[in-house]
Write a structure and sequence with these properties.
By secondary structure, this protein is an alpha/beta fold. About 35% of the residues lie in helices and about 30% in strands. The chain has two domains: about 1-90 and about 215-290, Rossmann fold, CATH 3.40.50.1000; about 95-210, 2-Layer Sandwich (Hypothetical Protein, Haloacid Dehalogenase-like Hydrolase, Chain: A, domain 2), CATH 3.30.1240. The chain has helices at about 20-25, 35-45, 55-65, 95-110, 135-145, 155-160, 180-195, 215-230, 245-250, 260-265, 280-290, and strands at about 1-5, 15-20, 50, 70-75, 80-85, 90, 115-120, 125-130, 150, 160-165, 165-175, 200-205, 205-210, 235-240, 255, 270.
Length: about 290
């Protein structure tokens, strides 16, 4: 482990914001016993645990329950900020329907799997994940997150604002799932078409996500910090991917695991051990004297 830029005062830390996949979770999307024990020790010291993830609340909530905390989660890369288990919504941003339609058309032309999360009315409950065809990418996403997509005409659902009797309020997150080289061809087309009117980011090498402008994990974390009255020097953020970088500019201290992207490690204040080694837990145990 090596120290880089800013320093943190352990006496001031009140909140810890964690990315899940590749950071807090071990390979196989597992929360290890060591990590659970360390986070509970942090909670015993009065620290707030914040999950900040590209996942939906439904997919991330199992880890919240394993840790055993109640509180905020930054979901869908910041498009939704929700306090669990009450599901109190602190923030929600929908993607422009025209952007979704453009992405659907692009996915059809390129024969690339694309899916969208739709929010349903409170009466219908929760979110709906929808793609246009079952395929290995859809199955892989289901196995990774535990969320089962349904399949149909995305543009038709978007325009009708209904699906199987449920009212659709809007698209909260959409994503292309493909090999990195394919996503590298898609991204410039999206940037040329939309510029900064949408937020485009990667949450993994094979996930290219398209969300509303103004959405990011950093914006979501800032909303949580404002809600609870935390200043930057009271918060540590942990992350490994491109979509975690906005958190690093909001928190007063940022840590990345050794397995993080080069660009993420380069701007982190501290590089911990890899997620295969419970890097975040080892860092916290040492830093806080647990």
């Amino acid at each position: 482990m090596e120290t880089t830029r800013r320093s943190a005062d352990r006496q001031k830390i009140k909140a810890l914001a964690f990315d899940l996949d590749g950071t807090l979770l071990a390979p196989g999307a597992v929360l290890t016993g060591r990590t659970r024990k360390t986070l509970r020790a942090c909670m015993d010291r009065g620290m707030l645990i914040i999950i900040a993830t590209g996942r939906s609340a439904a997919s991330a909530d199992r880890y919240r329950r394993e840790i055993g905390f109640a509180g905020p989660m930054v979901c869908f890369n910041g498009a939704q900020v929700v306090v669990m288990p009450e599901r109190e919504i602190l923030g929600l941003r929908h993607l422009d329907p025209h952007a979704v339609e453009f992405c659907v058309d692009l996915s059809r032309r390129m024969d690339v799997y694309y899916q969208a999360y739709f929010t349903r009315s409170r009466e219908s409950g929760g979110e709906l994940l929808m793609g246009e065809k079952d395929c290995p990418e859809a199955a892989g996403y289901r196995n990774h997150t535990g969320i089962q997509p349904v399949f149909g005409d995305l543009k038709a659902v978007l325009r009708a604002a209904r699906f199987e009797g449920c009212i659709i309020e809007g698209c909260i997150k959409s994503m292309f799932l493909a090999e990195p080289a394919v996503l590298d061809r898609i991204r410039p087309r999206l940037e040329e078409r939309f510029g900064d009117t949408v937020y485009i980011t990667k949450s993994s090498p094979t996930f290219l996500e398209v969300l509303s402008a103004g959405v990011s994990k950093g914006a979501g974390l800032q909303l949580v910090m404002d809600h609870y009255g935390f200043s930057p020097e009271e918060v540590i953020a942990f992350g490994d991917e491109e979509n975690d970088l906005p958190m690093f500019t909001v928190a007063g201290f940022a840590a990345a695991p050794a397995n993080a992207r080069d660009a993420v490690r380069a701007v982190a204040d501290f590089v911990t051990g890899a997620n295969t080694e419970d890097g975040a837990a080892v860092f916290l145990a040492d830093f806080l004297g647990l």
